[in-house]
Amino acid sequence: MAQPKYLTSDSAAIGEFLDKFDVFLFDCDGKELFKQELQTGVNPCVGVLWSGDHLFEGTVETLELLRSKGKKVVFVTNNSTKSRQDYQKKLTGMGIPSNIEEIFASAYSSAIYISRILKLPAPRNKVFVLGESGIEQELRTENVPFIGGTDPSLRRDMTPADFAGLADGSMLDPDVGIVLAGLDFHVNYLKISTAYQYLRRGAVFLATNLDSTLPMSHTFFPGAGSISIPLINMTGQKPTALGKPSQAMMDAIEGKFHFDRSRTCMVGDRLDTDIQFGIEGGLGGTLAVLTGVTKKEHWESPDASFRPAYYVDKLSDLRGGSS
Amino acid sequence: MAQPKYLTSDSAAIGEFLDKFDVFLFDCDGKELFKQELQTGVNPCVGVLWSGDHLFEGTVETLELLRSKGKKVVFVTNNSTKSRQDYQKKLTGMGIPSNIEEIFASAYSSAIYISRILKLPAPRNKVFVLGESGIEQELRTENVPFIGGTDPSLRRDMTPADFAGLADGSMLDPDVGIVLAGLDFHVNYLKISTAYQYLRRGAVFLATNLDSTLPMSHTFFPGAGSISIPLINMTGQKPTALGKPSQAMMDAIEGKFHFDRSRTCMVGDRLDTDIQFGIEGGLGGTLAVLTGVTKKEHWESPDASFRPAYYVDKLSDLRGGSS
């Protein structure tokens, strides 16, 4: 692997870098830290554009610089509970102006994958959803039929009639051909049992993303991967994941934007999600930003599986090219 | 490995077999079948003593024969929702007379393990329970302090205050030193989040058993393993399991009965749970019963990891020794 090129304070190199790409995919997710980092009590919510609730200085200006040069900016997030509209509100709340078309979250990624790539023939193209309203909104956007999700009739205890009705199939919708598992704050035994029965009957198994945890309030809570893992364990089947670093998400982004991969750059702070995602997706470049978890030593280690093409100390260093 | 000895219709061999053992451990669990068997629609509830709701002919008489010869009979089950009392009712309902002291279920196994083997010093010996009342009853029997379980205050949606209170620890009991995960029909996001926070703070991780599924109504539902798997996935930590084939269950049985392993025989229908359990436990013998999933061809295959010492076509063939 070639040595990553350091761009900070090198305006010629930055200018060259910016000229090489038309599209920049930005990682927006707080990260799962390594065990030893967790034990030192480091804030788990570090990232590329912000850390926890703190927007990094120069983030907005850097994004504006890219847009002013005609670059396409895409915010990529594994967040599965939010629709693009919900996520735009979050960005606005962080102080980042954005266009809804610039947002690519795993709920939307899932909807795109189902409608434009998987394309199961009707009527057996209905989705059983484990997840919140963000997923439902995006499925509606793509005209994908679904059941489950936030349906209040599933937010209850399992009864003996449920065991019987799931076993004999009378409680199952014969049109369900897909199970989509995202983060569901209302997960329960009835929903997992129902999803399992659909999978046993041959439904395609999808997951918005497989992150086992959700960084929040300076600690972690169960992530979308905690919803799908019992089903993986029961069926021995792995879902197609629609979040980073799964290439199904890259395919979905391409299904939507039809970009030229060779002129696209993935920007992120983690080698084993973001940089991996960009490299395996055959993108023209990857940029590591050192305001996150990854340090230079990580990719200099002989064990490093992924090495970025470029790196900067902080995202706003990219503004050094235009000065 | 030696060739298993076939006892059916060989009264001399049966007599010799019975003389070798003082204690017989009986597997009582319906089994998870192999994928190909599932697809053929075979009844998943086959076993040693019964199949589904059908008691095999001669089961009661065979157990009586053993008892009349002064043998100790122990019913071993991974069922984690039932206390021994609950389980005795189930046996009675099946038509099998039993003494409560003959029953060893994984909820009881867990209680014994905590109180007699783990023996954490008070006050940090409190258990956070993911599970039903059977576990609570058995913990009470052994005077083990616990919280969680069927507590109705945990059967609700997660609130923003819960995220904050779990993150800052104000909702956590500092005396909790153990998380015990069994089958919980009322599992939810709040309970999994709470258990995770205790594990992050160093609680010992136990599971009643790791069966991913629960055979029921001729199909499968999520088993106890479906409750612990999100926590395993989030922490990267494996719990000590108190069900077959984990040797922690054998230790708990020994902690209770103080039997002589060399004069104890495990009776079961599956090579990779029951027979493995007996062999790894260093028991004097193992008996495979062919009314379950395992066929002779399974252990005759060169890939077979475990081979029983003895086998019979059906349990009641053991009566042939006394005729």
From TrEMBL, chains A, B:
Its cofactor is Mg(2+). The keyword Acetylation does not apply. It is an enzyme of class 3 (hydrolase). Divalent metal ions. Mg(2+) is the most effective. Mg(2+) binds at D269. It comes from the Eukaryota. The keyword Hydrolase applies. Substrate binds at K244. Keywords: Hydrolase, Magnesium, Metal-binding. GO terms for molecular function: alkaline phosphatase activity; metal ion binding; phosphoglycolate phosphatase activity. One of its GO terms (cellular component) is cytoplasm. Gene3D superfamilies: HAD superfamily/HAD-like (3.40.50.1000). SUPFAM superfamilies: HAD-like. Its EC number is 3.1.3.41. It catalyses: 4-nitrophenyl phosphate + H2O = 4-nitrophenol + phosphate + H(+). It holds the Pfam family Hydrolase_6. PANTHER family: 4-NITROPHENYLPHOSPHATASE-RELATED, HALOACID DEHALOGENASE-LIKE HYDROLASE DOMAIN-CONTAINING PROTEIN 2. This is 4-nitrophenylphosphatase.
